[in-house]
Amino acid sequence: MPEPDFQQALAAFRAIVGQNAVLVGDGAAQPYLDPFAPGDAHAYEASAIVLVSNVEQLRAVLGVANQYGVPLWSVSTGRNFAYGGAAPRLKGCVVLDLQRMNRVIEINETLGYALVEPGVSYYDLYQALQARGIKLWLDPPAAGWGSVVGNTLERGFGTTPYGDHAAMQCGMEVMLANGEIVRTGMGAMNGNHDWQVFKAGFGPSYDAMFMQSNFGIVTKLGIWLMPKPEGYMLCNYKFRHDTDLESIVETLRPLKLDDTIQSNAVIESAVRWAAGVSTRKQWYDGPGAMPDGAIETMTRKLGIGRWNLRFCLYGPEALVNARRDVIHQRFSSIADTELMESPYTLANVEPKGGGDRSQVGIPNLDAFNLLNWRGGSGAHIDFSPVCAPLGRDAVRQYRMIRDRAAHYGFDYYGGFTAGPRSMHHIFAAIFNRDDPAQARDAGQLLKTLINDFGAAGYGQYRTHLAFMDLAASQYDFNNHALMRMSESIKEALDPNGILSPGKQGIWPRKIKERD
Amino acid sequence: MKTGRREFLATASLAVTCMRVSWPAQTMLQSATLSSEQVPLGHALTIVFDEHLADSRAFAVRSRTMGARIVPLGNDIGVLWFERLMPLASSPGNTIAGLTTHANAFLLTRFAQGIGLRVAQHVVEAHAGPGTLVMWQLVANGARSCS
Question: Cβ–Cβ of A365/B113 closer than 8 Å?
Fold first, then answer.
């Protein structure tokens, strides 16, 4: 857009939100660059930042953006690391930062939900629950500093029984590009009190349309919270052989499907486990991916498995023990397996380790220890295909990633988070961002994997900015009919294309035609 | 190239206690643009240290003898930030510094940038144990609003 128009737009933004809430020039956008960019982070650099504090400011900012044609990239708190952080897909967008909209509007202990604004982090919500002595648990994602709204809209996940965040969402308030506010589900009815307890409402449901999309800006979101159980038991199984993966998944699936295992269950590779407690250099300092012999030595010395399964059981002690006995019996059929569990623990006693704390609803940041694995300025980008909980698919995906990663010199740092009918397979390409060759190879690896997996019929649930178009293009049934529908909706709801252009591969018509 | 333990501690401590002295020249600087960063005169100094790292512990002990307040990372870096460091960082006249792993330096500096603090950091070779550590400092100049 012409520079004079842009300056006028900035002046209008300042008039709405105040001088200090518009950041431009002099390195202002630097904190909004992707710290883990697999290449030049400036390729996704914002032109300015606007911080809004309420929906009135937001509506006015959208009005200015529509008037001048300023593309905005909305972020809740901008912690979407490994997938682009706060950086926009389209260079030059103005980042619309919602972190100042940070009210916990309601916590309902009786019905087990909270209603929050985008700037509320998992730490914030946890503190609110603690401060009020409310007997509800939240489900934190691996990185607890993120936004509840942001993570839920990205369909993030955690490791309690409420680990499917999108499934636990109930009711939204959304501002459309024209400034109109819409409430979904029962929230569409004045005077109704069931907004956060019944998702559907009357007629079509639209909540999912505002997840991983650019059709509107979510300004309030309801999230269900888990009643604090009487107690819990943390279980940690170690499997001796790399070839055990198929048996693990086949044994796990029925236990998840019938809810014997209540929490999301996490299957972690040896490297992923080791990266939480050690550095790569301690085990291997040569070129290329860690050889199998080095991984074997590492697992023995650390006392971990080639695959490691962790999950948590909740409830009264008798019920927990009964579940534990069934699960132990099933997994004991896998040779050389070590079945470990913590003693049954009352719910008000906190575990120490980060992964364990996540399973009892306590946000933490221990997952970032992986940044130390490779040495230097550690960074990572994630490859995140969906996998059915079938042993043959898990093994196939694992081998495809392991072999490609090794080709590019990366270790298989991966694992599966298993729900009842699907698993998130997450592989992190860890690199030293001060090493341009490593960063470039990480990007190249991700591209190759997305293409490989697309050809094999596997799709991603989420991806980094740099690969959004490629990941979206894999969803190609009926010559990309779903994307055509998304573009039609985009055109109808946001004709000026001001909201997050390019998000998840959805581009406004005017930008698509221009390019 | 690793420094000797005595040299490492001396230079590291010098960086945070002698308020007008630049970051240690002997350490391995990876960001030349930050090499002249200084701790402002008159600032109260808080040192964050990692109880699990010998270099970090020794750095903290040395800093304490020179008048700095020291704070362990503890079990949850998020709680540390929200309950102890952010209140300090949000009031002018405070400098928070530390010698930690890259991951912990990343987390604390991102927290700090989120409230508009100035951040400086240098990578240094660890004396004890494998890998590198990061020496960092956060300077409160009257932070903007925080989340």
Answer: no
